């Protein structure tokens, strides 16, 4: 297995939910993490040690994405991992979806992934190694009522990551995509911890463990896609 100790990662959406769980688990494995999110106060709560460097920024801003990469290189001296986790969603009949909601989902879910990858890929190519992990959704592989906007954004994010995988593989760079089902988080204005969610949803820690799994795979092993089933909690 690949030893993650002293590797450096950027994790987006790191202040709560899945991103927080990924950040804390990676830090426990000895990874130094640039934890990126919009909420400075929540980020400070996540940054419990010198392993985690909080960065209040937005994934939809190209300068912020480049700054995250630059800070990782300047503060920690290297960059090995990028976890594109930040995501938003709202659900409605197509005719009731506000154009602003559509734009926000594509900005965060697709453009946010694009901008961070764009900033990190030249560095990964130059060093002939690196690992990009995208947290998409199982709805990137299926459709459902009220999911036109969110599903479209996740299909687009999945296509972006799949195409990028083919572009960077010749340079020794990995791209893995994780497709969680329902997760017990604050997503879509939910309140985590309900009895129903605990019985039927994945936990943020389950997704974090999946990220750890793909990152620790030996260098010659490429795990392109990993689907997480919300009911069995098996992956």
Automatic annotation (TrEMBL):
GO terms for molecular function: oxidoreductase activity, acting on the CH-OH group of donors, NAD or NADP as acceptor. This is SDR family oxidoreductase. Belongs to the short-chain dehydrogenases/reductases (SDR) family. Keywords: Oxidoreductase. It comes from the Bacteria. InterPro entries: NAD(P)-bd_dom_sf, SDR_fam. It holds the Pfam family adh_short. The keyword Oxidoreductase applies.
């Amino acid at each position: 297995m690949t030893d993650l100790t002293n590797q450096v990662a950027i994790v987006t959406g790191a202040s709560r939910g899945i991103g927080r769980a990924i950040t804390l688990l990676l830090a426990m494995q000895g990874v130094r993490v640039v934890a990126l999110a919009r909420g400075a106060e929540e980020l400070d709560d996540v940054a419990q040690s010198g392993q985690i460097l909080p960065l209040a920024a937005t994934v939809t801003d190209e300068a912020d994405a480049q700054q995250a990469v630059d800070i990782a290189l300047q503060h920690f001296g290297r960059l090995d991992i990028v976890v594109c986790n930040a995501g938003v969603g709202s659900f409605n009949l197509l005719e009731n979806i506000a154009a602003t909601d559509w734009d926000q989902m594509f900005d965060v879910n697709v453009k946010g992934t694009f901008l961070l990858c764009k900033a990190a890929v030249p560095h990964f190519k130059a060093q002939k190694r690196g690992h990009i992990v995208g947290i998409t959704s199982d709805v990137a592989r299926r459709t459902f009522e009220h999911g036109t906007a969110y599903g479209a954004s996740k299909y687009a994010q999945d296509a972006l990551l799949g195409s990028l995988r083919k572009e960077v593989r010749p340079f020794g760079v990995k791209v893995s995509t994780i497709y969680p089902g329902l997760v017990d988080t604050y997503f879509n204005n939910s309140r985590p911890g309900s009895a129903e969610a605990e019985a039927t949803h994945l936990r943020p820690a389950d997704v974090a463990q999946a990220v750890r799994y793909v990152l620790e795979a030996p260098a010659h092993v490429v795990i392109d896609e990993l689907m997480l089933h919300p009911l069995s909690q098996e992956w």
